[in-house]
Amino acid sequence: MKTKDHPSNGFSLLEVLLAILVLGIALTVFFSAANQGVAATIQAREYQTSREMLEELELREPLDLEEFEEGVTRGTFPHSVHGRVSWTRTVTIEGKEEDGFFRLTTKVSRGEDEAVQEESIETFLHLPSATKGGWVKEPFDEF
Question: Using CA atoms, how far apart are residues 80 and 12, in angstroms rounded to an integer?
Answer without folding.
Answer: 63
